[in-house]
Structures are given as structure tokens and as C-alpha cells.
Amino acid sequence: MPLTRRDFAKLGALGLAARLAPSLNAQTGERKTGYAVIGLGRIAGHFMGGIRNTTNSQVTALVSGHRDKAERIADQYGVPHSSIYSYEDFERIAENKAVDAVYVALPNSMHAEYTIRAAKAGKHVLCEKPMSTSVAEADAMIAACKAASVKLMIAYRCHYEPTNLKAVQLIREGAIGQVQAIESAFGFNIAAGEWRLNRKLAGGGPLFDVGIYSLNACRYLTGEEPEHISAFASVIDHDGRFKEVEENVAWTMKFPSGIVASCNTTYGAPMNGFFRVHGSKGTLEGAPAFNYDGLHLIGDFGGTHLDESNPARDPYQFQAQAEHFSHCVQNGLDPKTPGEEGLRDMQYITQIYRSAGISI
Ligand code: NDP
Fold it and tell me: Per the omega criterion (within 30 degrees of 0), is the bond before 288 cis?
């Protein structure tokens, strides 16, 4: 006999409902997409906050190395304790019908392993950026998801963010004329002790972590793929932080149309993430362009002065991203930022490192 909403409410009180099925979308009456969040760190907190604001998604399981933390978070999100998994018993998630998809929010080098394990367990995968720490891993992730007939999306939140989308639209409409050049940068001053400074966990330095925003932005702003890349990397602060990864990377790219881009990333300075696009009829600048909120678009073109701030507050980008992936899962659609999008960035990151003389 099918369960009614009232049955679900009763089961919810007993802490069992989420293990049977996520609740229903109040607007459409459809079943929400249930997510297992893997790795309960900083970004997972933003994501779960975003999920809470969606109508089509729900956190239904947690995967963590810290049971006490997981139980605390489970209580906040109504996840039954029976739906908390350790990394070791992760495969048991296959039996949990309340889990449709996983959100991989682990250190970079663990993305491939958990994406592949999740695919083998029959779950769709939303994986944080950078997709992986190598092109080979990215290829294996795409192949595993294809073999299991599950969807793979990389969490490029800017692709779902109105300020970035408006910049793309204006450029495509020709508002600033023929794009000639792009400048972009993103970085921060990293604290000692972060896993991001451990090459085995991070894969590399700021390019993997935040430089990827500039790289990806140059691609979505131009709508082209770079055909020539050259780069430099350096370490200035010999204070023990940069024994395994670089501190700075600067790279330039030439696109097929002739558009040139110059980008910087660092772990040694507070570098507010921005892009500035120079066209034959004017400029367009997102500053900041990659933060969780407070995004701002300024433009001067064809007699127009554009000055727009996005008033939406964090975690709206995570909400939009989850809504998109759940919509794809529920309707059998391909996500806008599939594994192949992450793979391309991994290929360019590899080229940037090679050009800078860093082996990867
Ligand atoms: P955190 O260090 O805050 O969280 C990572 C979590 O992974 C930990 O809390 C831990 O969860 C789990 N973990 C498992 N093994 C390890 C290990 N050996 N060392 C450290 N943590 C481990 O990282 P972030 O949340 O900042 O980053 C996670 C991923 O998200 C990265 O790939 C990063 O690039 C990406 N990211 C994306 C952002 C975006 O805006 N899209 C912004 C920030 C990060 P537990 O204790 O539950 O086991």
C-alpha cells in the first residue's frame, strides 16, 4: 500500500521517514531528490544551507569520519542516525532508497574515489571543484558514471549565478563589441596547516583551489576553449607553508578568435576574485565575481553605465546549483556542468603546470 503524507509525518516523528524516502515537493507533489553529503566541512555547510531553501532537494544521509559531528548535523537536518555512514562502510549507502545522489565535498584527491564508489552504488554524483587531481582521474570518474548510468555534475556554482550569467548574456548580445582581452584573478592568504598545502590531498596549490574560477570564467565569458597557454609559478614566502605546492601562478591564454586572457592566483595575498572583459565597445567587470554573495557587475559600453549589485545572500548559489541537479535527476536531463566540463579544466590546469615547469 503506498504511503500517504500523513504516514510520512508519523514515520518522520519516529526518525524513519528519510530512510524510506525523502519528503514531497509541496508545489509539485513530486518526490524530492535525496542527497548524501560526503565530508562535513566548510563547503558542505553552505551546500546543506542551500538545500534547505530548495523545493526539490533534501539532505537524507551523511558520510563522515566524525560520528559526533555527523549526529549533530543530522539532528539539524532531520537525517535519521541510521543514515550516517563512515568512509569505511560507505558502500552500504547502496541499500538506502532515500539517497538518490551524493554531494562530494572532500579534499580534492578524494573526489575520484568517492565519485566512483558512489556510481557503483547506483547514486548520481554532484562533485565539488576541482573535479580531480589529474586528467586520468577525471576520465575514470566520467567512465564510472556512464557505466552505472548515473549523472555526474561538477559544482561550478558560478554557472548558476545571475551576475555571472548576466555578464555572459551581455557579451553574447554584443554589448561590449568584440571581446579583445580578459583579466581575472582570485586568491587568498592561506593559513599554515590546511590540507590545501598538502600536495597529496590537494593535487596542487591555488590554481586547483581558486585559480580554477578565473580559468573557468575565461571559458564561459568567451564561449571558447583556449588553444595556447603559457604560465609561471613562484614561491615568495619561505615560511614553511609552500614546501609541497606553489604560492603563485600567473598564466596567459589565447583563444581561437584571438581573444587573449591573463590570470593570476595566489595563496599569499587577499586577492578579491574578479574578471574584467575588454571589448571594442567597452568594458564589463565582475568585482567581486566569485564570492558566495555581494557580487557586483560594472560596465561602460555604448553610452551605458551599468552598476548592479546582486542582493541575494549566501547560500543562494548552492540552492540554485542543487535545484538544477535535482531537476536533471528527476527529469532525466543532462546537467549544464557535466563531468566533461571539469575534465576540460583539468586538461588546462595540466597544461598550465607543465608550462610553469611543475610536474603533475
Ligand atoms: P574542509 O577542510 O572544510 O572540509 C573537508 C571535509 O572532508 C572535512 O571536514 C572532513 O569531513 C573530510 N575529510 C576526509 N578526509 C579528510 C582529510 N584527510 N583531511 C581533511 N578533511 C578530510 O574543506 P572545504 O569544505 O573547504 O573543501 C572541500 C572541497 O570543496 C574541496 O574540493 C574544495 O575545492 C571545494 N570547495 C568548493 C567551494 C565552492 O565555492 N564551490 C568553496 C570551498 C571549497 P568529516 O570530518 O566529516 O570526515
Answer: yes
Indicate the SS3 state at residue 169: helix
- Ligand 1 neighbours, Cβ below 6 Å, are 39-44, 64-66, 69, 105-108, 128-129, 155, 157, 195, 201, 209
Spell out the SS3 assignment of 269-321: EEEEEEEEEEECCEEEEECCCCCCCCCEEEEEECCEEEEEECCCCCCHHHHHH
Encode pLDDT of 229-285 as tens digits.
999 999 999 999 999 999 999 999 999 999 999 999 999 999 999 999 999 999 999
End-to-end CA distance of the chain: 56
What is the set of active-site residues? Answer: 129, 213
pTM for this prediction:
0.94
Q: Domains plus CATH for the chain?
A: 31-157 (3.40.50.720), 158-311+337-355 (3.30.360.10)
Q: Are 185 and 264 in contact (CB under 8 A)?
A: yes
